What we know:
Blueprint: H1 16-19, H2 22-38, H3 42-59, H4 63-67, H5 74-87, E1 92-96, E2 99-102, H6 103-128, H7 132-142, H8 153-183, H9 193-199, H10 201-224, H11 243-265
Helix pairs in contact: 2-6, 2-7, 2-11, 3-6, 3-11, 5-6, 7-8, 8-10
Amino acid sequence: MIRDITIGQYYPTDSVIHKLDPRVKLVGTIVFIISLFVFRSWVGYVLATFVLAAVIKISKVPFKFMIRGLKSIVILLLITVIFNLFLTPGETLIQIWKLRITKEGVVTAVFMIFRLMYLIIGSSVLTLTTTPNHLTDGLEKGLNPLKKIKVPVHEISMIMSIALRFIPILLEETDKIMKAQMARGADFESGGLIKKAKSLVPLLVPLFISAFRRSNDLAMAMEARGYRGGDGRTKMKPLVYKNRDKIAYGIIALYLVMMICVVKFV
C-alpha cells in the first residue's frame, strides 16, 4: 500500500499536459477541486468525470498508474461512507437497532466517494505531469502579487515543492525499513486492523531519524551552494505563456462557466 501513493511522483512522458505552463495546471487543479465541493447534483459529477477522463487521456499517463493512489485512501473512504450513511438525517430506508440508513445519507455518501476519489486523482495529475522545479516556479510566479504585502512567496513555494518531492523519497525509505524488519522476523500482514496499525509503530522511529537526516543533508547542500532565498535570484528557464497555455486557460474558463451554470440552474 505504501508504494501505491502517487501524489508527489512525476511520470515523464511527452504530452500536451506535460508541456503546459505550471501556472495553468495549478489554476486548473484549483478550479477542478472547487467544483467538486460545490456540485450538488449528478450532472455536475458527470461533467467532472468527463473533464478528468479527457485530461488523463491527453496526459498519456497510464490509467492504472493514475488510480493506484486510491488504494491508500480505502480506509478513509470506508469511514466517510459509514459516517454519512448512519449520521445523515432524512427518510429512513433501513433501520438496524437504533442505527438508521437514510436516503439522504446514501446520496451524500456516494457524492463523498466521488469527491474524495476525484480529489486524489486530480491532484495526482498535477504532480505526475509537473516536475518539482516547474511546480516551484509556477507557485512562486502565481503568488508573486503577495510580495507587495511582504509575504515570503519564494520560501513558501520552495517548502511546498520540497514537501512534495520528499513524499516518494520517504515512501521508498519506509519500504526499505519494512523489508529490513520483515527479514528480521517482523510481521506486518497478519492480524486485524488494530494489530496491523500497532505493528507499524516500530517504523516511526527509524523513519523520523531518516527524514531528519535527509532534511539536514538538504539544508547543508543548499547552504554550500550559496542559496539565499528569492531576492535577486534569476531563472535559467523563465516561465513564458505560449499559445497552448492561452487555449488551456480558455478551456478552464469554459469549465468554470459550466460549473456556475450547473450549480445555479440544476
